[in-house]
Amino acid sequence: MPHQIYGSSRGSLALTSGISDHPPADGICATLVTIHGYKCQEHEVVTEDGYILSVQRIPGGRVGVGGNGDTKRQPVLIQHGVLVDGVTWLLNQPEQNLPTILADQGFDVWISNTRGTRFSNRHLSLQVNQQGYWNWSWDELAKFDLPAVFDYVYNETGQKIHYVGHSQGTLIAMAALSEGLLVEKIKSAALLSPVAYLNTVTSILGVDSYLINPTCFQQVANLFGDSAFDPKGQLLPFFNIARTLCDAPGIDCYGLLAPLTGPNCCLNVSTFHPFIRNEPQPTSMMNIRHCGQSIREKVVAKYDYGSSEANTARYGEAKAPAYNLSNIPKNLPLFLSYGALDTLSDVRDVNLLLGILKPNHDVDKLTIQYINNYAHMDFIMGVNAKDVVYSQVLSFFKNHTGF
Predict the structure, then answer these.
(1) Which residue stretches of 267-377 are H helix?
(2) I want to staple 50 with a disulfide (CB 3.0 to 4.6 A). Which of 23, 124, 159, 211 is the partner?
């Protein structure tokens, strides 16, 4: 069944002065994009299951940059990972941020925000404080969110779409493609810190954590409730203390992320306060549980409902079915970039993924980049990502314009 797409847009063109480290209550465009001289539009996309998603469009570069003529621009959709939103792509200066770099290079840029995050927390019939609102995992992001945004961007632009995903943004794209979704509307995909298998994840999320131990997970569920997982809302005193401590000169508070993401090499310490005021974002406990299942079962599979009866009712079989990643179209141009120090997208797990992709993929349609000193957050906030990663993404997109 095709997705029924609803949409609206409102221009946000006025300039304001200075970047605020407060959450962008007025929207991502007004707070983080137009202040730098870009046009930006706020769009809404409604998924087939009723979630209202916030999507930002940067239709061109700054005046005098990137050729702002009447030439039809190639659309690019950028998708963040879990526990963050589109804000994380925009915390550095425009010359260092992927969305604005792409806009200045002549692309029509769209930034998606996953359901449950601050600007995508509405539904046609459910309230965010209702448990039913949070009854989803990344299965639904692959089945509903991503296809809905693809359909909307395609309908707005009339063109196939380049895609950039980071972390969970790579997982949902690969899951969707393996199920035959997106195929008719995607031009190419750049997967940064690709996450599929979590067999050897060395992050604190995977090593002796509550995700591994179902009993411990239930204790966490008792703490957070079994609907939303909202670290900032439920651990606000901790974040207030962290902000106070990090005011001290010479303190690199991004080091606090190392046990979770790996030792990021190249983050701008001046963006810590904007980061901590905006992130982390909520997700569902069901989504967190699904990640734990992937770690424990060492398979890329759909959500396990906990019994053969429940799984049969959902899937028609007693066991949650696996995603067959070898079904990803072999002629779809793919760019995968991963880092040696990433503890969420572990090198061994990426190699396992590549072991599935390589035998089936056209050799000239698969590009792989390995970065010795990068960890998980460097790919979206690294001050040198423009030269290390984004230049490669740009070359990849420009080399694959005929798919």
Answers:
(1) 272-278, 285-297, 308-315, 347-357
(2) 124
**Which stretches does DSSP call E strand in 6-158?**
7-12, 40-46, 51-58, 74-79, 107-112, 122-123
CA–CA separation, 257 and 354 (whole Å): 27
pLDDT for the residue 402: 52
Q: Give per-residue pLDDT as tens, 308-334.
A: 999 999 999 999 999 999 999 999 999
- SS3 for 232? helix
Contacts of 33 (CB under 8 A, 6+ apart): 12, 40, 56, 58, 90, 99, 100
* CB atoms inside a 10 Å sphere around CB 145: 26
Q: How confident is residue 152, by pLDDT bands cut at 50, 70 and 90?
A: very high
Label residue 308 exposed, middle or buried (CB < 10 Å: 0-12, 13-18, 19+): exposed
Positions marked catalytic = 167, 342, 376
Tokens of residue 30, six digits = 């007004």
Structural domains present in the chain: 38-400 (3.40.50.1820)
Q: Going by C-beta distance under 8 Å and a sequence separation of 6 or more, which residues neighbour residue 148?
A: 3, 5, 45, 46, 47, 48, 53
As a 3-state breakdown, the chain gives helix, strand, coil percent values, each rounded to 5, of 40, 15, 45
**How sure is the predictor about 230, in pLDDT bands with cuts at 50, 70 and 90?**
confident
Report whether pLDDT(229) > 90.
no
